[in-house]
Input
Amino acid sequence: EIVLTQSPGTLSLSPGERATLSCRARQSVSSNYLAWYQQKPGQAPRLLIHGASSRATGIPDRFSGSGSGTDFTLTISRLEPEDFAVYYCQQYGSSPLTFGGGTKVEIK
Amino acid sequence: EVQLVESGGGLVRPGGSLRLSCAASGFTFSSSAMSWVRQVPGKGLEWVSGIGAGGGNTYYADSVKGRFTVSRDNSKNALYLQMNSLRAEDTAVYYCAKAQWQLVHDYFDYWGQGTLVTVSS
Output
């Protein structure tokens, strides 16, 4: 099983600031099959990024993904009020599918 | 518009059984793999089980293997999760999630709103 570790656990930032979220895998993620999701309280997760760097349909370009192998990053270039949420990474290159523990982006 | 609507959650005693359903619409159901993902309230996401587009390939997390069974009826655009021998640690919101492609090993482009399963005496 590929264990994903997300850091930091909580990120306290102000609107307009840049957010950098990390997702590290204990072993290489096959074909960079790494996705990022956003989840707000009381809502289902929403797909942001797949294939490590491809934005999903309708996702603003302030969200970007990068990385390969075992180190991946989600960057939000300028935080909007609606971006404060919990973010999860997920690998889908091998079974079982696994998620990271999440990073909460909160308003400072 | 893609819609995934889960049902069947509720309160069940330890050792009991429950069957979750997910009604899908707005896409070609038979062309997409489907999964169940659960979340203990206030905690992270855990993939539970997945089934390929044709229904022939099924996968399970070790935590539920031998107790849960995933199935689908492509003629009814429906996904199911039969949960037996339920334990307190199975208490969670269960989400139905659609894969982009036919294989289970994929990302999830749409999610339902979830159904709460509570296992308690």
Remarks:
- Chain B touches chain A through 23 residues (CB under 8 Å).
